[in-house]
Design goal:
Elements: H1 3-28, H2 55-64, H3 70-75, E1 79-82, E2 84-100, E3 105-108, E4 114-119, E5 126-127, E6 132-137, H4 139-170, H5 176-202, H6 207-212, E7 223-227, E8 232-237, E9 244-245, E10 252-255, E11 259-267, E12 279-283, E13 291-298, E14 308-316, E15 327-344, E16 348-351, E17 354-360, E18 365-369, E19 371-375, E20 379-384, E21 391-395, H7 397-406
Length: 415
């Protein structure tokens, strides 16, 4: 082999050996990747992952707090209250009905029979005391007035005859018997006049009217005016123009609705709690304001059909909101129980099947799991999870719950 051929063979062997070494080095000495370092932003509480009891609240506040501005709280009707002790009022609710005040209700019945000549009032009309509601033409009334006038004439005649006989007797011109007869006749005439006068008084005519009666035209003798006995409202009308009525006919019913009765039905189980003078709040609903009163009467009997007793409340009704016939509910507080911590029911929300209250912290509102005790329709006792002085969302908590589940409040106000 020539010298040039030897050099070529040596060079080829060197290249081949390098390729083999590179392959072995790549297979057995490949560099391992450097492990990545995990960075956590979670804050720890104590060593070895242990949490203080208060740390659970801190964690909730850091991860679930909802921060709101004053304008946002106003927009969402969120009101903040302070947890404190209070009295939990235990009450019962009784069904009832508004009825007219029977002490201020009258059935207008004419004292004489007659024919209806005028009808001036109808259902729903307001009337004033003494206002004419209808006019009757009564023959019976005409007879009574005629008897009164005749009796008056007889008294005047008997009086004149007595004066004359008395004068003659004193002068010994006539006998004592004639004098005594004239005296007796005068007395009988006066009794007859008094009887006729009392009959007209019973029909509602005053002494002033009777004094003017002799000068009135004969056509007015049959006229009888039906008048309102007091201010009120016509709630019943049973008279028509031209009909004949008797003296016991109910022509109108007038009620003074400035006060009404509320008749409550008291169940047997609740009778032990009811007493006279007890405060009652009457609710009719449908935008009608609640009214406050007290029990003025408790019935002694229990209804055979309803098995309930009657409890009555007298209420002022100057605004006319409580119309007879309305069904209402009477709420009566039967006892008041002191509790160490009391919140309104509007503050409670169910979150993950647990009762919670949104407590206000420096970070914002956070849901705080609570345990509740006794309650009524408006408030509830909190036995654990809160302490006196905690500030919380007393109203609007449902909005906070809804926004918490969204994870943000509007344009990212949630934290």
């Amino acid at each position: 082999m020539t010298m040039k051929g030897k050099y070529i063979a040596i060079l080829f062997a060197a290249v081949l050996a390098g390729a083999v070494l590179a392959t072995v080095a790549h297979r057995y000495f490949r560099p391992q990747p450097v492990p990545a370092v995990a960075v956590s932003t979670e804050q720890t509480h104590g060593e070895d992952g242990e949490h203080r009891e208060d740390g659970e609240h801190d964690k909730d506040e850091e991860t679930k707090a909802i921060r709101l501005s004053e304008s946002e709280m106003k927009e969402f009707n969120i009101e903040v209250g302070t947890a404190r002790a209070g009295n939990l009022k235990i009450h019962i609710e009784l069904p009832g009905e508004v009825v007219p005040n029977a002490d201020r209700l009258v059935h207008i019945v004419p004292p004489v029979s007659g024919v209806v000549r005028e009808v001036r009032k109808t259902l729903g009309d307001r009337v004033r005391k003494g206002e004419v509601m209808a006019v009757l033409a009564s023959r019976e009334l005409a007879d009574a007035k005629a008897s009164f006038l005749n009796a008056g004439e007889r008294v005047a005649l008997a009086q004149a005859n007595f004066v004359r006989e008395e004068d003659l007797w004193k002068k010994r011109i006539s006998s004592e018997q004639e004098y005594l007869q004239a005296k007796q006749t005068l007395a009988e005439a006066r009794i007859e006049l008094r009887s006729a006068e009392q009959k007209l008084h019973a029909l509602g005519f005053s002494d002033e009217y009777l004094a003017q009666l002799p000068g009135q035209p004969d056509v007015s003798y049959t006229r009888y005016e039906i008048t309102a006995p007091f201010d009120g409202t016509v709630i019943g009308k049973h008279v028509s123009l031209g009909e004949a009525t008797k003296e016991d006919a109910n022509l109108f019913t007038v009620a003074d609705l400035s006060s009404v009765w509320v008749n409550l039905s008291v169940y047997q189980k609740d009778m032990q709690f009811i007493r006279k003078g007890q405060p009652v709040v009457v609710s009719a609903g449908h935008g009608i304001p609640d009214a406050a009163g007290e029990i003025s009467y408790i019935g002694s009997l229990v209804g055979e059909q309803t098995r309930t007793a009657l409890a009555r409340v007298v209420l002022p009704n100057s605004g006319g909101n409580l119309r007879p016939g309305l069904f209402v509910t009477g709420t009566i507080t039967v006892k008041s129980v002191p509790v160490p911590l009391l919140v309104p029911k509007s503050a409670l929300q169910t979150i993950e099947e647990r009762q919670a209250v949104f407590v206000m912290t420096q970070e914002g509102f956070v849901p705080r799991t609570v345990t509740v005790g006794r309650s009524n329709d408006t408030h509830v006792e909190v036995t654990s999870g809160m302490k006196p002085g905690d500030r919380y969302a007393a109203s609007g908590s449902f909005t906070l719950k809804a926004q918490m589940s969204k994870g943000a409040f509007g344009d990212g106000h949630g934290h």
